[in-house]
Write a structure and sequence with these properties.
Layout (H helix, E strand, L loop, with lengths): L7 E5 L3 H10 L5 E11 L2 E11 L10 H13 L14 H18 L2 E5 L2 E6 L1 H4 L9 H6 L6
Parallel strand pairs: 1-2
Antiparallel strand pairs: 2-3, 4-5
Length: 150
């Protein structure tokens, strides 16, 4: 949960609905928001405009590149998510399972280069960086892991 000493920041593509809902949920003392608006013509980016929506976002680069990269990874790894595809999902259950596997891999198995400022730190998974896990998972651990549902 965000607190004034542990703020969170949301950066979006400029859809006004995002900014409105974020303002309703979080106070400015705990969160900040900015938007990136890209002027695109014939598949080329002509201009990028970054704007503060609310909160103190100074010192934070307003960027959507991380989520754009993640969305690209999802489209590359799950064929039904690509545009103009013939690989449709025949079952919602299996479609959700595919998304879960890619999400799990991204957060528990794949290493990311952790940085502090300009200094590269060690490679860890997002769950290790957040203190949720102490080690990188293997595919064997994933396959053998039993989920107990209540």
């Amino acid at each position: 949960m965000p607190f004034p000493d542990k703020r969170i920041f949301f950066f979006t593509d400029g859809n006004f609905q995002y900014g409105n809902i974020i303002k309703e949920i979080y106070s400015e003392s705990c969160a900040g928001s900015g938007k990136v608006i890209k002027a695109i013509k014939e598949n080329s980016v002509l201009n990028i405009k970054r704007e503060r929506v609310f909160g103190d976002v100074r010192g934070h680069k307003i960027s959507t590149s991380v989520v754009e990269g993640y969305n690209n990874k999802m489209r590359q790894r799950i064929a039904p998510l690509t545009r103009k595809t013939a690989a449709f999902s025949k079952s919602l259950k299996f479609h959700i399972a595919k998304i879960d596997i890619v999400t799990f891999s991204n957060n528990f198995i794949e290493k990311k280069m952790e940085r502090k400022g300009l200094i590269k730190m060690k490679e860890r998974s997002p769950t290790m960086i957040e203190g949720i896990e102490s080690h990188l998972w293997t595919w064997r651990e994933f396959i053998e892991f039993n989920i107990v549902r209540i």
